[in-house]
Amino acid sequence: MTSVAAAAARTILTRLHEVMASRSHAQAKLNTVVEVIGRGLDSEVCSIYLLREGMLELFATRGLAQEAVHVTRMAVGEGLVGTIAEKTETLNLAEAAAHPDFSYRSETGEEKFHSFAGVPIVRHQRAVGVLSVQHVEPRRYEEVEIEALQTVAMVLSELISNAGLVDDESALSASSALTGPELLRGLTLVKGLASGIAVYHQPRVTIEHIVAEDTEAERQRVYHAFDKMREQIDRMASQAEFGVGGEHEEVLETYRMFAYDEGWARRINDAIDSGLTAEAAIERVQQRTRMRMRQIDDPRLADRMHDLEDLSNRLLRIVSGQLGTAAAKGLRGDAILIARNLGPAELLEYDRRRLKGVILEEGSLTAHVVIVARAMGVPVLGRVRGLRGLVREGDQLLLDGDEGTATVRPAPVMVEAFEARFAKSRERQAAYAALRDVEPFTRDGTRITVMINAGLRDDIPNLGFTGADGIGLFRTEFQFLVSATLPARERQTRLYRDVLEAAGDKPVVFRTVDIGGDKVLPYLRHDDGAGEENPAMGWRALRVALERDGLLKSQARALLEASAGRTLNVMFPMVSEPWEFDAAKAVFDRQLAFLKSRKKVLPEAIRFGAMLEVPALAEQLDVLAPKLSFLSIGTNDLTQFLFAADRANPKLAERYDWLSPSILRFLRRVMLNLEGTGVDVTICGEMGGRRLEALALMGIGLRRLSITPAAVGPIKELVRRVDLEEIGQAMAGWLAAPPPSLRAALLDWACARGISCD
Ligand code: PEP
Ligand code: MG
């Protein structure tokens, strides 16, 4: 905002302040307000339209016929005023009648006025009215005048609401119905259906006060908030090896650029000069940027805009002290969470009973937040462009994770249709649940082992619900992720013991902590690895555990003690060379010797395994195999390394197919190399829980799968339809001479046999 506009706005604001503080009644105040604004902006006409019972009603005017007041009413979307409200957009026209949306109202006597400018009066991000000015002379208003008008409209929104002229609640519902349904398209990250109310993970700040009492004090507040925000961003960037909240380096760089952008700070300062509070000034500048960006059609700029929007919200939260996420505030009803991206720990903070779905602007299939959501049974739609511009807090949402869509503000017929689909899907789920006690034998009589992946105490009942053969991957780091501090050894022991007890005779494979990559532990500083450029292939998992061996030691003790009198299955993540396996096993051996010396009850047996996630290990399986009881293939990591494609990078989310000959040939070679060694091989990546992928895996010889609990029913059903001999031959053919699309070939093959693989 330039200083001229600031001065004009400031004069008007001071006068408005006086008017609103006066004792006259609301209508009299509005009559004075239009006079003040009209005079201040040197306009013959100034009018205020407010939303009443879903219509925009002329509440006060200077310059138009007074008989029109409370008589002229427009629907939202009708005429210029209605268009401004509908689109929450500013119009600035030299010749109003030439605009296609112009609608002439004879009672107002407005024909002699040529130019027209109008801005929405916004409350809770929805238009509750319109402020307009008109001129006889046909000229567009100057940008500075428009800015002054926008600032005044902001103030008006507070004054109008304080005077009870618009009821916030009805404004909310009226205007949300106005915008109508909208279909969002994205990438299905977790299948399933859900309906609920949109809740922003980072709630938008409600601005309480708009007009400043003390301009200097507001300036200081913004200075301090800027300092704090810069500190936060710098800290996030220095911890980037743990991918804070799933954000990527590129985003952090942009954050940094904006956080130190003097132009942005100066514009906020100017807005404070015009008489706004710190909060209102930040919002005012943001509104202006939003408006400008809307006129530029460049997707890269749109991304930048989101970054600035994030940062502006962060600044608002700091300055207003409204810091908590929606999880901290608690969910009040069935909710669909809206975020740009999330970290797994952030998702786990939500109340599982109320969190029905998640929609992300980013996200990828194997990002840990998505794995956690899958384990929680929460459908996730990702990669929804412009999400936060299309959904508002409190909007109703129908999330269709099967189709990869979501409907915002659905019409009643849409809700009905959705409910019908929902009921169908529940029936399907019930059919799968009925397979609980059915053992998964293939048509030719081979028993396939189907286990589940888990990580939290809450996951344990899934073993009973699904009838799975055990827990093939227990991600022990989840306990660390959900704790505010490093879990003490006793707490670890208690969890492991409870899991083993609940599992009874069924095996549980504990994986030692795999932190790093996109799994952030805020309480564990990793100075040694700070600033890593590629955290997923950096200092993580076993690499951390072997260096911080206090962590592994205490986990080894906890696991050994919890398994007293039972079999302990333990495996190490991200083993790259056999010596790393040896070193980790040695930590267990030493703890075992210690417990023995103390005459403690020991595990009945200990089975050590390794995860095959780093391709290099495949070249030394002959060395490693004799030391192993089992091998678990983590295809989430393995495939990201095979393809050199960051699993958490949304830009690559759809790039590579798990059904690629490269992956399947690689896996088949591993199977062949281990033939006759007695080492059990399991797939525990997300791939194994998808029907078509599972079919391919069975075709190359895999007989053990550890998958997300929701996939157990569908996979058991699949197993029972498969003839291993037949799929084995088909796969051998396709891998010897790959067809253009292995996925398409496999799908045809499945369809021809009545096996549905959507
Ligand atoms: C994997 O990488 O496939 C795996 C199962 O481990 P995580 O997803 O926890 O990295
Ligand atoms: Mg992994």
Write the layout of secondary structure elements.
Layout: H1 3-21, H2 26-40, E1 45-52, E2 55-62, E3 73-75, H3 79-87, E4 91-93, E5 115-123, E6 126-135, H4 143-162, H5 168-179, E7 182-185, E8 187-190, E9 193-200, H6 215-238, H7 249-259, H8 262-273, H9 278-294, H10 299-320, H11 326-329, E10 335-339, H12 344-348, E11 355-360, H13 368-376, E12 380-382, H14 387-390, E13 396-400, E14 405-408, H15 412-433, E15 449-454, H16 461-466, E16 471-475, H17 477-482, H18 489-503, E17 508-511, H19 542-547, H20 549-562, E18 567-572, H21 578-597, E19 605-612, H22 615-618, H23 621-624, E20 630-633, H24 635-642, H25 661-674, E21 680-683, H26 691-699, E22 704-707, H27 712-719, H28 724-736, H29 742-752
Parallel strand pairs: 9-10, 10-11, 11-12, 15-16, 15-22, 16-17, 17-18, 18-19, 19-20, 20-21
Antiparallel strand pairs: 1-2, 1-6, 2-3, 4-5, 5-6, 7-14, 8-12, 9-13, 13-14
